[in-house]
Design goal:
This protein has 143 residues and is an all-alpha fold. The chain has one domain. Helix content is 55%, strand content 0%. The longest helix is centred in the middle third of the chain and has 43 residues.
Length: 143
């Protein structure tokens, strides 16, 4: 029983590390969206991003689903080991972490249309966490 628990905890830890290791790509996407001012730009940016990072996004969804499955297995093991005392939660105190659920953010409907191009996702230059402002690279100014 203890080996099974340790295996499950190890798998959960490894999957959470994979999520952390790909947070950079997701953050880059979220930051890039802030430059989009119309629905058309958002859609174009999303399409370009998914072309470049779609596999990462799909992997993250699968990892979150597996984490949830493993946490359920772990909770079931705990339920078998220790019956919950009166007044205590049935899940033996385990918390459902919503940040690992497959929650898609709602994209606002921007009714103002324009013909400006959406910014393309930045190429990964390996300088994780470095912004264009920090590197001195050209930045587009809003008109």
């Amino acid at each position: 029983m203890e080996e099974t628990r340790e295996r499950i905890i190890g798998e959960i830890t490894a999957l959470k590390m994979l999520l952390r290791d790909t947070d950079y790509e997701v953050t880059k996407y979220a930051e890039g969206l802030t430059a989009c001012t119309t629905q058309k730009q958002i859609e174009a940016y999303r399409e370009a991003f998914m072309e470049q990072y779609g596999e990462v996004i799909e992997n993250r969804k699968a990892w979150r689903a597996k984490i949830n499955e493993l946490e359920d297995e772990l909770a079931a093991l705990d339920d078998e080991d220790t019956p919950a005392p009166d007044g205590e939660p049935e899940n033996n105190g385990y918390i459902d972490y919503p940040e690992y659920a497959d929650n898609g953010a709602d994209i606002p409907d921007l009714t103002e249309e324009d013909d400006t191009e959406a910014p393309a996702p930045a190429e990964d230059d390996g300088a994780e966490g470095t912004t264009e402002a920090e590197t001195g690279e050209d930045q587009e100014q809003p008109e």
